C-alpha cells in the first residue's frame, strides 16, 4: 500500500451499471459517509473524481477486483489519482455481520482503506492482460477436449467397440473415423461428438497461433524463455506460470510465492497443541496443477537428456541453465528421499512442486537483475 498523507479515502463498490461511493476522512476516528450511487460510465466517473479532487485533494481510491476488470484503475491513473485494486478474499469481514448491500460495502472499503487493512493486487498492463486471457482461454479449451474425448469413449464403450492399443494417436483417429453404428441416430450422435472434438482442437490451434503472435511484444517474453531451462517446464507451462504470476519481483522471497499459490503446509495450533495440516491450496488451482505436472519429471535421476537439448530455446542464458541443473539435482534427490521415508508419491510431488516454484523465482530475479 502506498504511504502518503491523503485528505480523503474513497471506497468504490463497482458493478456493471453503477458504482457506490463512500468517503472516509483522514482522521483515525473521522467520519465515514456514503456519498451515493453514480453510473459506471466513463464520463460519470470523471465528473465525480474532478469534484472530489477539488474538495479533498490528494485522495486515495480503492475498489475490489472483479469481473469489471482494470479499466477503472487505468482511468484513475490517467487522471493522476492514486488507486489500488483490492483482493476480495483478503478483506476483513465480521462473522456476525448478516447485512450486505452496496452502501455498506462501499463504506467498509473506505474505512478499511484508511486503516491500511486492505491488500492490493498486482495489476497487469494491457498486453499482459491479453496474454493471460489467451492462456486462460486455452486452458478452458483443453478442459473441453477432455470432456469431448470422454463422450466419444463412452458411446463406443456402450456399443462394445474397444480400441486395445494406445489411444488418440493418428492410427486411433483413423479407427475412430471408420466406426459405424447399426442405427442412424447413433451414428449422428457419434459424428456430432467427433466434430465437437475437432472444433475444440481447432480452437486450441488458433489460440496457440495468437499466443505466438503476441509473445514477441510481451515484456515478459524473455522470462518465458528462461523458465524453459527447467526439466519438465515446456512452453505452455512457462507461458501459463508467467501469465498468471506476472512480475516475480513483487515477491521478496520464494516463500511468499509458495504461499501465494497455496503450496505451504497449513496449521491449526493453539497453546501447547500443534496440529499440522495439508497444503493451504490458496491461489490459482490450474497453475498448481501445471506445477504438479512439471514436478513429475523429477522422479528419475538427474541428467541433461534429449528433451532439454532438443526443445530448450536457444535464448536460455547460462545462469538459467546453471540454476536448472542445480534444481534438477536437488529435486530428483528430494523426491527419492521422501519416497524412501514412506511418503506417498503425491506428497513427494507436492514438495517437489513447491521447491521448483522457488527455483523459478530464482531464475526470474536473476535474469531481471541482469537486464537492469
From TrEMBL:
The keyword Coiled coil applies. Residues 10-157 form the Transposase IS110-like N-terminal domain. Residues 226-299 form the Transposase IS116/IS110/IS902 C-terminal domain. Residues 190-217 form a coiled coil. InterPro entries: Transp_IS110-like_N, Transpos_IS110, Transposase_20. Keywords: Coiled coil. The keyword Coiled coil applies. It comes from the Bacteria. PANTHER family: TRANSPOSASE, TRANSPOSASE FOR INSERTION SEQUENCE ELEMENT IS1111A. This is IS110 family transposase.
Amino acid at each position: 500500500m502506498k504511504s502518503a498523507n491523503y485528505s480523503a479515502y474513497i471506497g468504490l463498490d463497482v458493478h456493471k451499471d453503477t458504482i457506490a461511493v463512500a468517503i472516509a476522512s483522514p482522521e483515525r476516528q473521522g467520519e465515514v459517509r456514503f456519498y451515493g450511487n453514480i453510473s459506471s460510465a466513463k464520463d460519470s466517473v470523471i465528473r465525480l473524481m474532478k469534484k472530489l479532487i477539488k474538495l479533498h485533494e490528494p485522495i486515495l481510491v480503492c475498489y475490489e477486483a472483479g469481473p469489471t476488470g482494470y479499466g477503472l484503475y487505468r482511468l484513475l491513473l490517467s487522471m493522476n489519482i492514486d488507486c489500488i485494486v483490492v483482493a476480495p478474499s483478503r478483506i476483513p469481514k465480521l462473522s456476525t455481520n448478516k447485512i450486505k448491500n452496496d452502501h455498506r460495502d462501499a463504506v467498509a472499503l473506505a474505512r478499511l482503506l484508511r486503516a491500511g487493512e486492505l491488500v492490493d493486487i498486482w495489476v497487469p498492463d494491457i498486453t499482459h492482460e491479453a496474454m493471460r486471457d489467451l492462456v486462460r482461454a486455452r486452458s478452458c479449451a483443453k478442459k473441453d477436449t477432455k470432456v469431448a474425448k470422454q463422450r466419444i469413449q463412452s458411446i463406443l464403450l456402450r456399443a462394445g467397440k474397444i480400441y486395445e492399443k494406445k489411444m488418440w494417436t493418428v492410427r486411433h483417429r483413423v479407427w475412430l473415423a471408420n466406426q459405424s453404428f447399426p442405427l442412424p441416430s447413433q451414428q449422428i450422435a457419434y459424428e456430432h461428438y467427433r466434430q465437437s472434438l475437432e472444433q475444440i482442437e481447432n480452437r486450441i490451434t488458433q489460440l496457440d497461433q495468437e499466443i505466438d503472435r503476441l509473445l514477441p511484444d510481451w515484456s515478459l517474453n524473455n522470462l518465458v524463455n528462461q523458465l524453459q531451462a527447467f526439466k519438465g517446464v515446456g512452453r505452455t507451462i512457462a507461458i501459463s506460470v508467467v501469465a498468471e504470476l506476472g512480475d516475480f519481483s513483487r515477491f521478496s522471497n520464494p516463500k511468499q510465492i509458495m504461499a501465494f499459490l497455496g503450496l505451504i503446509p497449513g496449521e491449526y495450533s493453539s497453546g501447547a497443541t500443534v496440529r499440522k495440516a495439508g497444503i493451504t491450496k490458496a491461489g490459482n488451482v490450474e497453475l498448481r496443477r501445471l506445477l504438479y505436472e512439471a514436478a513429475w519429471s523429477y522422479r528419475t535421476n538427474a541428467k541433461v537428456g534429449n528433451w532439454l537439448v532438443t526443445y530448450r530455446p536457444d535464448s536460455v542464458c547460462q545462469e538459467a541453465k546453471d540454476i536448472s541443473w542445480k534444481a534438477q539435482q536437488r529435486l530428483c534427490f528430494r523426491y527419492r528421499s521422501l519416497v524412501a521415508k514412506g511418503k506417498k508419491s503425491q506428497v513427494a510431488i507436492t514438495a517437489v512442486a513447491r521447491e521448483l516454484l522457488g527455483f523459478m523465482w530464482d531464475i526470474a530475479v536473476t535474469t531481471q537483475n541482469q537486464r537492469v
